[in-house]
Design a protein that fits this description.
2 domains; Phosphate binding protein; ten-stranded mixed sheet; Phosphate_ABC_transporter; D-Maltodextrin-Binding Protein, domain 2; phosphate ion binding; signal; transport
Length: 305
């Protein structure tokens, strides 16, 4: 009889009939899904937390910010990683379905780096030039002081929060347009990095945590006079690097109930603790700012404690 029960359970798992995720109130597993920019960082944080709390299981996966937010809306996960803020339409879906608004916690800061092949002589661009390049208004490197060669664009897929952030904060404000139809949409930061590394005429944008010696970081300027690198910690802390964004996680208030809720709350505390923020730095990102901590206190912690 026990073998029969066992075989039935295996069959149910194979066909996906057993619910896995936050709706399983007996499970202490925490499911996190979303931003590919955040996936390695959150995996590092989860691993460190589980080493300190061996009875806890945290499952982290990527797929893009939009994918994670959709999974949160559908009740499939506990936490959505996002490299962009939720859209009003997404918040409205959660309000209609759950009768509450999502909670947002800022866990790190990211500087989006504009990168080119190391053989490319171009080492600095204005934000306006970057925008025009990705909108397809500038199509040859000689137009920005480089070689007489066509520019190859590499960007993210439309489900990516990085795709939307770069579009709304860089491309569209300066051109009034969307991305060029010639841009090659790749799955993640690593894919863009590798593509630019192998293409002398390539240009892309990636999270600073994914930089390597295989590509060259372009300094960026707002005014055409002062150029800054996302690797310049002082410039970043002073807010001088122009392509900066918060990295956040979204969850729902009802997920803080019971023992699993306490575990989830404790993990969030760990992420923004001194130890957690050290892992943020070691993962190639920047710790949250004082203003981020104040925002978290007013809009996250005050609502769950």
């Amino acid at each position: 009889m026990r073998w029969l029960v066992f075989l039935i359970l295996v069959a149910l798992l194979i066909c996906g009939c057993v619910q896995q995720g936050p709706k399983d109130e007996e499970s202490l597993e925490i499911y996190i899904k979303g931003s590919d920019t955040l996936v390695q960082l959150v995996s590092n944080l989860a691993e460190a937390y589980m080493e300190k709390n061996p009875d806890t299981s945290i499952v982290v996966s990527g797929g893009g910010s939009g994918t994670g937010i959709k999974a949160l809306i559908n009740g499939e996960i506990d936490v959505a990683d996002a490299s962009r803020e939720m859209k009003d339409s997404e918040i409205e879906q959660i309000k209609q379905k759950y009768g509450t608004e999502p909670l947002r916690l800022i866990i790190a800061r990211d500087m989006l780096a504009v990168v080119v092949n190391p053989s490319n002589p171009v080492d600095k661009l204005t934000v306006e030039q970057v925008a025009k390049i990705f909108a397809g208004e500038i199509t040859n490197w000689k137009e920005v002081g480089g070689n007489d060669a066509p520019i190859t664009l590499y960007g993210r897929q439309s489900t990516s929060g990085t795709y939307e952030f770069f579009l709304e904060h860089v491309v569209r404000p300066y051109t009034g347009k969307g991305y060029s139809g010639t841009m090659r949409n790749l799955a993640g930061n690593i894919q863009i990095r590798d593509a630019v590394a192998s293409d002398p005429n390539g240009i892309g944008y990636i999270g600073v945590g994914y930089l390597s010696d295989a590509i060259k970081v372009v300094k960026v300027s707002m005014d055409g006079k002062n150029y800054y690198s996302p690797l310049d910690e002082k410039a970043v802390e002073e807010g001088k690097y122009p392509i900066s964004r918060p990295l956040q996680q979204y969850t729902l208030p009802q997920y803080f109930q019971g023992k699993k809720g306490e575990v989830l709350k404790d993990f969030f505390r760990f992420e923004v603790s001194e130890e957690g923020q050290q892992i943020v730095k070691e993962s190639g990102f920047y710790p949250i700012l004082k203003t981020d901590r104040e925002w978290n206190q007013q809009n996250f912690w005050a609502k769950i404690e």
